[in-house]
């Protein structure tokens, strides 16, 4: 697909955003409503049989249905689903912000407060989708985006599993949907998944946020499945001092090989993480401009108004003391590493 291509008479392709196992994501402009959107097209492998193509097409359709029937602030809204010249496409909300894995690479280990602030938001999303019999199955750092206002969005339900017994399974025997970096042991073995599979992946993300390192790593990816199945994770406290013992216990419980040894549900994870959320700050601070992504903001200033962009403040005639105070506030409130 080329830049400038018009899809369905309204979505103008701007540029490529990324590629995944199920499709390609483009930034497009909805010319009817005058807004940017994320447009995902389904990959079609020329070597597939007609049966395999039909199964992949059905899985792609189910992605749209899975997310469209969910309603949570931490999910990207589905706008449209269609087909253009044999290419199936899904149109969703375009979420602006860095992926979690990029933030970890740039910042290194995150503060305890930031880890909790991101973790409870992911747990809230998982609690909502699990209650509707959906399991993400591919939760990883690149599928978690932190908006500039600190709100976390969980993306890409392309390999979501449906737990409704009346729903026909779309995964054939031997398939292992998902990415190895946060894949649970039962996925590696090709066993049935349930909500605790996503909780294992959340444990992987918490581990990476706290230590700056993945749970398992090897120069050969072929070694990872065996490590996931057999090797116990190094306790995060050995890689970083100062991690509360209760938080380390939670992470290691999430990473249990046996799903029965993990927390029972996402609500329990939310409750145990919420202990380390940041304290609420003063309303005056909520009105100060900021330039950096701040995952603490939804908790330090819950339901706070969106601050005007820094440049707008600088030209509004109110910038002098407010701008300097804002910068000082950011320095003073920045969590210690």
TrEMBL record:
SUPFAM superfamilies linked: Protein kinase-like (PK-like) (SSF56112)
The protein's name in its UniProt record: non-specific serine/threonine protein kinase
Domain Protein kinase: 11-277
Listed GO MF terms: ATP binding; protein serine/threonine kinase activity
Signal peptide range: none
E.C. numbers: 2.7.11.1
Domain of life, source organism: Bacteria
UniProt region (Disordered), positions on chain: 301-337
Binding site for ATP: 40
Taxonomic lineage from the root: Bacteria, Bacillati, Actinomycetota, Actinomycetes, Kitasatosporales
Record keywords, A-Z: ATP-binding, Kinase, Nucleotide-binding, Serine/threonine-protein kinase, Transferase
Enzyme class name: transferase
Biased composition (Low complexity): 311-330
Record-linked CDD domains: STKc_PknB_like
């Amino acid at each position: 697909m080329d830049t400038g291509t018009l899809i369905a008479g309204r979505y103008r392709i701007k540029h490529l955003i990324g590629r995944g196992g199920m499709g390609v994501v483009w930034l497009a402009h909805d010319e009817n409503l005058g807004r940017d959107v994320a447009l995902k097209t389904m990959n079609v492998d020329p070597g597939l049989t007609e049966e395999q193509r039909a199964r992949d097409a059905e899985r792609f359709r189910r992605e749209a249905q899975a997310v469209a029937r969910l309603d949570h602030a931490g999910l990207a809204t589905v706008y449209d689903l269609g087909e253009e010249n044999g290419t199936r496409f899904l149109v969703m909300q375009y979420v602006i912000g860095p992926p979690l894995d990029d933030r970890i690479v740039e910042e290194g280990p995150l503060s305890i407060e930031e880890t909790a602030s991101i973790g409870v938001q992911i747990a809230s999303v998982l609690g909502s989708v699990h209650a509707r019999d959906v399991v993400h199955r591919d939760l990883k750092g690149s599928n978690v985006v932190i908006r500039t206002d600190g709100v976390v969005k969980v993306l890409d339900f392309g390999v979501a599993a449906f737990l409704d017994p009346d729903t026909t399974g779309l995964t054939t025997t031997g398939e292992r949907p998902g990415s190895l970096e946060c894949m649970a042991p039962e996925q590696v073995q090709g066993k049935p998944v349930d909500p605790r599979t996503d909780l294992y992946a959340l444990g992987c993300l918490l581990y990476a946020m706290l230590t700056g390192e993945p749970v398992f790593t090897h120069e050969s990816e072929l070694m990872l499945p065996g490590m996931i199945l057999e090797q116990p994770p190094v306790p995060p406290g050995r890689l970083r001092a100062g991690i509360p013992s209760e938080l380390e216990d939670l992470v290691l419980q999430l990473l249990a090989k046996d799903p029965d040894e993990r927390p029972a549900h996402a609500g329990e994870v939310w409750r145990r993480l919420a202990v380390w959320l940041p304290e609420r700050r003063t309303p005056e601070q909520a009105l100060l401009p900021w330039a950096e992504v701040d995952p603490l903001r939804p908790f330090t200033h819950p339901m706070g108004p969106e601050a005007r962009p820094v440049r707008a403040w600088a030209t509004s005639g109110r910038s002098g003391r407010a701008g300097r105070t804002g910068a000082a506030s950011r320095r003073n409130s920045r969590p210690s590493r």
